[in-house]
Backbone:
């Protein structure tokens, strides 16, 4: 139903909080927990995300409403990709399906002439063969010409995507120099597609506070707050920075993409009334980069310390049963996002050196290109029977699901963003009371050495990884005992983080009542 016809919540609320995220919500445990816990704290919560299809989807997470919007992408392609490059590549076809059409058309022409020649030979008609000669020569010449133009078209498209020519570098630098933080409008206009899909819905919902998750939604939230204030409504904006954007490994290969996202973030960061992030180190970096008036608050990506009776009643899949291994088999698990910079390849490469060990990846997409590559590599090493790839379980089941493994592995590479926070899987492994094997990224490596809950190895060092894993498997009880330290796991719970987040909301929206007594709502239900 349209947003303006949305019925008012039956229960009294402290105000409406609108949360924004640029993904499909499922698989993003942080935003799910934020929405649910804010609703439990008495806020009227709507969480807007993005669907891959064209049809809007709705469901609930406890008392929070989730809506996934369709985001059309006509601005994903740059303007120059729609024009012919008359000077740059005069022989290339104009953008679109024409090149493929011409190539296929001339192939069909030659195929038809070949059949006509065969028939003429069968009929013994020399005249018939002679009549086909001009057409066959014309077809051959035409195919050579079309093939040349098709190759030029393919090369042009490749250059346009890589944008590594001197002209491309000059234009990128030109827009950055002349437009500053506003340069994203030229470098990645696709960001406007999110604004045009989300903006109207945000305005219709009339939130009291907008909670924008990560860098894309920061701009959507800031522009919505500015529009609301122009109409006399004092809407507050909270920016939830999940990572240090300049330090990420860009998942979009377009060279302008990362530059554009950083400019977009810089333009709108100053409009946030409060900023929260995932670590104290990152808080300091964000304050310095964006010259924030106050240091961002820290809300860790910690798992639930308690779950509702409904969630507790749901059966938890048996990890070892799904892998087909018994309790005596050494089992190393990685759970979380899967990408080359996450270092999962080292877990596969180590298997020939650890003949008793089985490895399991718990990932969002079990058939992604990366997973297929790792599965194929395991086959080449003749260890395919010891590699298992499983899908996610609901976030409130993760710790219990992983608990039967022997060790939790975090083999991430040295990227600036990996050095500065304790990531979600660190806390999930900890609540599963798993001994850890982690790479020597700064913050996480230091924490593991401090608590004694695992071993640290040199990132991307196969021999050192095998050493660390053997060490942990040799005495798992000693590493599990680290979790008995007083208060260690208590501070790493979402309940503690939810109180911090609610304090931010309450400070920005004073006089909205107190947070109700702790309690858990109903489990997530799909509409």
Residues:
């Amino acid at each position: 139903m349209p947003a303006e016809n949305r019925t008012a919540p039956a229960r009294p609320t402290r105000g409406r909080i609108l949360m924004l995220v640029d993904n499909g919500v499922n698989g993003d445990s942080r935003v799910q927990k934020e929405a649910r816990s804010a609703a439990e704290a008495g806020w009227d919560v709507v969480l807007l995300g993005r669907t891959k299809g064209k049809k809007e989807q709705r469901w609930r997470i406890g008392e929070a409403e989730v809506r996934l919007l369709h985001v059309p992408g006509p601005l994903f392609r740059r303007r120059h990709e729609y024009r012919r490059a008359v000077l740059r590549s005069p022989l290339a076809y104009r953008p679109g399906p024409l090149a493929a059409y011409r190539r296929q058309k001339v192939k069909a022409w030659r195929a038809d002439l070949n059949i006509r020649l065969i028939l003429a030979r069968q009929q013994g008609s020399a005249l018939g063969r002679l009549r086909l000669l001009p057409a066959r020569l014309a077809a051959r010449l035409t195919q050579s010409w079309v093939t040349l133009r098709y190759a030029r078209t393919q090369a042009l498209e490749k250059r346009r995507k890589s944008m590594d020519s001197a002209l491309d570098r000059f234009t990128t630098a030109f827009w950055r120099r002349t437009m500053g933080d506003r340069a994203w409008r030229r470098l990645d206009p696709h960001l406007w597609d999110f604004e045009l899909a989300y903006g109207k819905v945000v305005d219709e919902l009339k939130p009291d506070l907008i909670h924008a998750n990560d860098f894309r939604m920061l701009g959507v939230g800031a522009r919505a707050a500015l529009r609301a204030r122009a109409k006399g409504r004092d809407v507050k904006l909270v920016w939830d920075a999940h990572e240090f954007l300049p330090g990420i490994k860009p998942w979009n290969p377009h060279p302008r993409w990362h530059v554009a996202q950083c400019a977009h973030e810089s333009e709108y960061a100053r409009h946030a009334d409060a900023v929260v992030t995932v670590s104290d180190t990152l808080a300091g970096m964000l304050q310095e980069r964006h010259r924030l008036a106050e240091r961002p608050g820290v809300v860790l990506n910690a798992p639930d310390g308690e779950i509702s009776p409904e969630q507790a009643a749901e059966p938890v899949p048996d990890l070892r049963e799904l892998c087909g291994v018994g309790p005596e088999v050494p089992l190393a698990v990685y759970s979380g996002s899967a990408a080359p910079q996450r270092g999962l390849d080292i877990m596969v490469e180590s298997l020939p050196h650890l003949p008793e060990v089985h490895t399991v990846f718990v990932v969002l997409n079990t058939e992604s290109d990366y997973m297929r590559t790792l599965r194929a590599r395991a086959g080449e090493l003749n260890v395919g029977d010891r590699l298992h790839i499983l899908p996610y379980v609901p976030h409130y089941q993760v710790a219990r699901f992983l608990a039967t493994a022997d060790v939790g592995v975090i083999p991430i590479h040295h990227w600036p963003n990996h050095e500065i926070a304790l990531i979600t899987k660190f806390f999930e492994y900890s609540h599963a009371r798993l001994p850890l094997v982690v790479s020597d990224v700064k913050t996480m490596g230091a924490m593991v050495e401090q608590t004694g809950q695992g071993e640290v190895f040199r990132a991307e060092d196969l021999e050192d990884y095998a050493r660390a894993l053997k060490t942990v498997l040799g005495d798992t009880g000693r590493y599990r005992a680290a979790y008995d330290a007083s208060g260690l796991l208590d501070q790493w719970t979402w309940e503690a983080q939810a109180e911090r987040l609610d304090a931010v909301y309450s400070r920005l929206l004073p006089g909205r009542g107190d947070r109700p007594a702790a309690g858990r709502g109903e489990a997530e239900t799909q509409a």
About this structure: The radius of gyration is 28 Å. Confidence is low (pLDDT under 50) at residues 1-9, 519-527.
